[in-house]
Design goal:
The protein is α/β, with parallel strands linked by helices and 422 residues long. It folds into two domains: 142 residues, Alpha-Beta Complex (Aspartate Aminotransferase, domain 1), CATH 3.90.1150.10; 234 residues, Aspartate Aminotransferase, domain 2 (3-Layer(aba) Sandwich), CATH 3.40.640. Helix content is 41%, strand content 15%. It has 16 helices and 13 strands. It has a seven-stranded mixed sheet, with helices on both faces. Strands 1-2-11 form a three-stranded mixed sheet. The longest helix is centred in the last third of the chain and has 19 residues. Bound molecules: pyridoxal-5'-phosphate. The site of pyridoxal-5'-phosphate (PLP) has 13 residues, from helix 6. Pyridoxal-5'-phosphate (PLP) binds next to helix 6.
Length: 422
């Protein structure tokens, strides 16, 4: 693969893309951003620029996929969420284009007033059916799906027990609810059992977990978590953002993976922007829950409805998942190839049947260095650092997709093999 020239730094001539305003100015923003968080970011970003380590926010010239272009140069992409390779699927794109022609680019309102169209209703029916739930609602993002649910179900007198690695959107939803937030050791039902026992006197107890953890690629032990929740009469919310389309025999998510009736879980949330290759979020559960959330869930009531193109793309994406089961097969083959290739080069990786392959690096700077080294060699692989992962556990978050060829994965593995751990 041709090696692209290193990314130009801000001091050189280049399109103004990322990292503006790193130097403090005397303008009023200075006081506005006189904050410890801003200071930390600007210090880190200046260092990243000086050392030429920042590879974030690269502007793709076209669709995502295994082979992308950035500033006229080809790259192999190894960190996309498009797990089933649906972005670029001709029928998904046709559906999105047809939806814009029929319904326009925007929905023109919030769902409760004038924003609902037939596509929303069709997608909600299909999603509920696919998830094995009575009903579903869709809205602007997976992030807001969690904000719809949590504050509508618990309040200041209640407690939320969140897995230690639960997604940021779940934690933000918990904070918004003003319920007390407790964290529980990752994927540890015994720790959850103890926490719930201590909360026996709290009126409502909501447990929140991810089905598939986006930075670890592991799966929540749902049967054990469910048993603990049942024993303590606690409610359970599972976020399926990275599980929908990727686990279970036909991609129906965590319940299907474990052979559990989805109705056993109180609330499912998820994203339309990962395996479905579209944009948006959903909540699935009982018909009564969904009706309640349609009227009490603030982001559903007060934010514009999901746009027609995304709704149609997700609807068609679901249909492709049903009629092209080989995509899931191919994604799994590529993930297994990626894992085994990295193991052969000496990397320790756990065995999970998910497309997410975290390459643990440890120190943040080393993760940035590795990402830069790969980028220079023509591979885009995302470095993930604190706070997205615990401090000292920085990593490259690699993803195998159904769109990767065996050669793509071999090239990625070979590029990573040139890295020598300091
Ligand atoms: C577990 C989890 N939930 C929710 C989200 C947010 O989804 P969206 O990108 O659709 O807002 C993500 C995003 O990566 C996620 O990993």
């Amino acid at each position: 693969m041709a090696s692209p020239a290193p990314l130009q730094t801000d001091s050189q001539e280049r399109p103004s893309t990322v990292l503006g305003g790193l130097e403090p100015s005397e303008r009023c923003e200075r006081a506005l951003l006189d904050l410890p968080a801003a200071e930390r970011w600007f210090r880190l970003l200046r260092f990243g620029r000086e050392e030429d380590l920042y590879t974030g926010q690269q502007p793709l010239e076209g669709r995502t996929g295994p082979r992308i272009r950035i500033r006229g140069r080809p790259y192999l992409s190894l960190s996309s969420y498009d797990y089933l390779g649906l972005i670029g699927h001709p029928e998904v794109e046709e559906a999105a284009i047809a939806a814009i022609r029929r319904y326009g680019p925007g929905s023109g309102g919030v769902r409760l007033l004038t924003g609902t169209n037939e596509l929303h209703c069709a997608l909600e029916r299909e999603l509920a059916q696919f998830m094995g739930s009575e009903a579903a609602l869709v809205l602007g993002s997976g992030y807001t799906a969690n904000l719809v649910v949590v504050p509508a179900l618990v309040g200041p007198r209640d407690v939320i027990i969140a897995d230690a690695l639960a997604h940021r959107s779940l934690l933000d939803a918990a904070r918004l609810s003003r319920a007390r937030l407790r964290r529980c050791r990752h994927n540890d039902p015994a720790a959850l059992d103890r926490a719930l026992a201590e909360e026996a006197a709290t009126p409502r107890r909501l447990v929140i977990v991810d089905g598939v953890y986006s930075m670890e690629g592991d799966i929540a032990p749902l049967p054990d978590i469910l048993a603990v929740c049942r024993r303590h009469r606690a409610f359970l919310l599972v976020d399926e953002a990275h599980a929908l389309g990727t686990i279970g025999p036909t991609g129906r998510g965590t319940a299907a993976h474990f052979g559990i009736d989805p109705g056993e879980v109180d609330v499912w949330t998820g994203s339309l922007s990962k395996a479905l290759g579209a944009q948006g979020g959903y909540v699935a559960g009982s018909a009564r829950l969904i009706t309640y959330l349609q009227h009490e869930g603030a982001p559903y009531v007060f934010s514009g409805a999901l746009c027609p193109a995304s709704t149609a793309a997700a609807l068609e994406g679901l249909s492709v998942i049903r009629r092209e089961p080989l995509r899931l097969e191919r994604m799994r083959l590529r993930a297994a190839q990626l894992r085994s290739g990295l193991r052969r080069s000496g990397h320790a990786l756990s065995e999970w049947p998910t497309p997410i392959v975290p390459l643990l690096v440890g120190h943040e700077m080393e993760a940035y260095r590795l990402a830069r080294q790969l980028f220079t060699a023509g591979v885009l692989a995302t470095a993930v650092t604190h706070p997205a992962v615990p401090a000292g556990r920085a990593r490259l978050r690699l993803c195998a997709t159904a769109a990767h060829s065996a050669r793509d994965i071999s090239e990625g593995v070979a590029a990573i093999a040139t890295w020598s751990r300091p």
